[in-house]
Each structure stands twice: as C-alpha cells, then as structure tokens.
Amino acid sequence: MYHRLGTTQSQDELVYTDPSNPEQFVGCYVLEDSPYLIRTVRKGNQDGNEVYVRPLAEPLGEWTKIYANSTSSFYPRYDHNGVLYGVSTDGSPNGRVVRIPDPLGNASMETVVPERNIVLDELSFGGGRMFLTYMSDVHHVVEVADINGKKLADVALPGIGSISGFDGFATDTAVYYTFTSYTTPTTIYRYDIASGTSSIWQSVQAPFDPSAFSTEQVFVKSKDGARIPMTILRKKGVDGPRPTMLYGYGGFNISITPAFNVNYIPWLEQGCVIAIANLRGGGEYGEEWHKAGMRLNKQNVFNDAIACAEWLVTNDVTKPNILALNGRSNGGLLVGAVINQRPELFRVALPEVGVMDMLRFHRFTIGWNWQADYGEISKPDEFRALHAYSPYHNLRSGVEYPSTMVMTADHDDRVVPAHSYKYAAMLQHVYQGSRPMLLRVKLRSGHGDVNRRKLLEGVADKYSFMWSEMGFTPSLSK
After folding, report:
1. What pLDDT, on the 0 to 100 scale, is given for residue 258?
2. What is the end-to-end Cα distance of the chain in Å, rounded?
3. Same domain for 64 and 166?
4. What pLDDT is attached to residue 477?
5. Do 309 and 422 lie in a common domain?
6. Tell me: the pLDDT tens digits for 32-54?
7. Interior angle at CA 196, CA 193 and CA 202, nearest 5
8. Tally of CA atoms within 13 A in the half-sphere of 35 that contains its CB
9. Active site includes 447?
10. What would the pLDDT profile of 82-139 be if each residue is shown by its tens digit?
C-alpha cells in the first residue's frame, strides 16, 4: 500500500497484491532520483529472490522482471542515471557489485566490482562515491571507489569493529557512518569526501572505562577441521579459570559482528569472561559458510560450539563447572542441542526464546519460513537430521544436565512460547538430579524486550542464576 503523510490509513492506495502466494515476502521501494518502482519477492523456502521494475510514470503499467534466482540474490541499492546498482550473490557467494544498464529493455547484468575472498557486507553510495564494506575475519574494512568500481581509497577506521552508513546524495561533500566494537559504544563519524578523513560527529559517553577490558580473537579447530573464530572479552589482568558465558547463534546467514552491549559490562567488571563464537550457519564468511551450517549440515554448528567450549577449558579460560552456554532464538536451539550432546561440558544452560521442537516448528506463525535453513520433515533425509538434534526429542532420563533456565515470553509471535513450554516440561519430567530446571516466562512481552525494565529484569535473573549455580559471589562494590 502507498500511504501519504497526513492522510488516514483508509485512503492508502493499493500498489501490489498476490493473495494466491501467501508464503512470500514482497517489498516495493523507490531509489533516490530513480524513474522506477522496484518490487522484490522472496519465497519463504528459498534463499534467492526476484526483482521487478515498473516506470513511476505508469502506475498501471506492466512489471518487467529483471532478476530471478531461487538460490542467490540481487537487491538494487542505487540508481545512477537510470542504471541500477546492487550486490548479487549469483555465481559469487561472497557478493559482487553489479549493475543493470537497461532495466526496461535488455536486463543484462554487468559486474562492476568482482567477488573477492572476503564477504561484501554492504554497498553504499554518497558524495559521488561508492563505499564497499567488507567483512574480514568478523570485522569490517571499507573501500572507496568511483561509479565504475575503480578503487580510490581505504577508509581509515578508528579500530577493529563494525561499520554502518556512508549513504548520501550524489552532491554531498560529506557522508556519515557509525562505528562500534565490543568496548566502544556506537559513535557517529563524519567522512569528508575531498580529504578522505573522518572526524567524530556524535559519541556516547558511557559510565565505564573501555581501556580496562581486553578483546582477543582466537581461531578454534572444529571437529572436521574448520577454522572457527571466537572473541574473548575480559577485564585486563584477569587470568586463570573464571566464570564464563559462551554465546552463539549460527544460522540464517546472520553474522555476529563486534558491537557494544552495555549488559556485558556488569559481568566483565566482576572478573568474569564472555566468549562469542562465530559458528557456521552465519554469514561471516559468505554463503558457503552459511550453507555449511544449514539443513543436512546443521550438526556442524553444534560441533563448532562444542569445540569452542573445549578450547576455553583446554586453554584455562574456564572449567566446566563455571561455564555457561547462552543463545537466543536459533541460538536457543543451539543451547538445547549442545547440552543434549555434551551435558558434562557446561554447568549452566540458558536457552532464550528457542526453537526446541524441530519436527513441528513449521506449523506455527513464521516457522514455515525457517525451512530454507532447517530443512523439511517431508524429505526423509532432512527429517532424520532434524530428529537427530531436536532439543525436545532428544532429552533422556538418567542424564546430569546443566542447571537450566529456559527463558521465553508469553506474547512471542516469532518463536511461539510452546517450544519453551514443552521443552521445559520434558526436561523437568526426565531429569532426576538435584540441579534446578526452571522456566522463566516474561509477561506481556514478545521475541524481544518491550521496554528497558523487562530487559534489565531478564539480565539480572540470567546473571544471578549463572553465578548462583557456579558458586560465584559477585562484589556489590563494583
């Protein structure tokens, strides 16, 4: 629908509808100074997409299909005199910059910047320049190029972290971007086009000393020899086995990049450790990395997490009796699957809003869309793979599971709380030991926290539960 500001919703105009195909994602947008209305379509069980264009001057005109692929994607990002630019993974799983010179005629695609051995994470345009943000070993580097892809400069970044921005008008003399790292709150920088230099435009003054903490990246060898990045956060001067929280996700082509999280600070100030694992299934190393952790390869994700936990123990960062595993959503599935397979490796488990029933996930809310990553139970080989690691279906009696707090919310319409309810009930049913097996249900809340109070209550309960079960007493003077 098209909505004009200042009018009522009942006056909105229909742009496009396709009621015969409800399980797809459709979007319409117009690029700056572009003569086209662009429509993108992605079917829920596919990784690729379709792209259509229609002249803005012909609101009842025909749509022209300019791209269609079920396994790779292309999304237009910029219009330069009627030529569409964007990033495509078609034949280039790490991404390449392409353009379509004649969208309404011969919609052939030209390569502007070829694929590289690192992932092209973002493409931006501003000040008559093209900004290419690449991901190199889970942090960003940025290059500046002209409209034809010729490299002009590198952007000198303030450190190792994550970048977003650089969009602007072609006539702008400066563009803006944000920088963040695990110890740096999000800071806005102004990039001067002529000089190629950056200066701080806006920063957040958080009440902590970032120089008091260290960030170390290590690479862990997984079961099949894959090289898995893991970042270790701790207070400087802290050594020896310390209470440690291992966090992971590993799915849906989502990259876990450096970002400041204020909730980590109380944990780190107590001399405890946070380890963040970049598991396969994410997008840190492109589409091949994603595919290595999806469908029949999903077990690789759990093997990666187990290898990271073992590395932490072997290298004296922590011990199993003071090690916790945490993850949200798809990361909650990770927690459930891993503690079923290696319960002795962890003292505490915290699956949050997790997908725990892998044989029925597709029947609720948006779950049908996850089949592209998890697989389909109608396919015998994928059914066997799903059943083999499904957290709910692999709980067993006689096992000494980690102390577990299953966390969910009563209004979660992304991962319905029934996943957590069933899993917690089965865990309490089969477990015969003395460790607590709890279910924490956030009321009047959804897949994410609806306000700061609920967020802080959840963090307080998480840390209290972990520290209590690890036998650690925090200092209240910190």
Report:
1. 97
2. 52
3. yes
4. 63
5. yes
6. 999 999 999 998 878 899 999 99
7. 80
8. 10
9. yes
10. 999 999 999 999 999 999 999 999 889 999 999 999 999 999 999 999 999 999 999 9
CA angle 260, 262, 264 (to 5 degrees): 90
- 72, 222, 329, 445: the active-site residue: 329
How many structural domains compose the chain? 2
Per-residue model confidence (pLDDT) at position 208: 86
Q: Are strands 403-409 and 437-442 parallel, antiparallel or unpaired?
A: parallel
The answer to whether residues 130 and 123 touch, using CB atoms and an 8 Å cutoff, is yes
The ranges of the chain with pLDDT < 70 are 477-478
Q: Assess if residue 475 is contained within a domain.
A: no
Residue 477 forms part of a structural domain = no
Active site residue 329: yes
d(CA 43, CA 29): 18
From 139, 140, 362, 447, active-site residue: 447
How much of the chain, in percent, has pLDDT values that exceed 70? 100
Q: How many CA atoms lie within 13 A of 5 on its CB side?
A: 0
What are residue 55's phi and psi, to 5 degrees?
A: -60, 135
191 and 237 in a common domain: no
3-state secondary structure at position 48:
coil
Closest CA to 93 of 304, 291, 370: 291
CA 19, 20, 26, 29 torsion-angle sign:
negative
- Residue whose tokens read 């097996």: 437
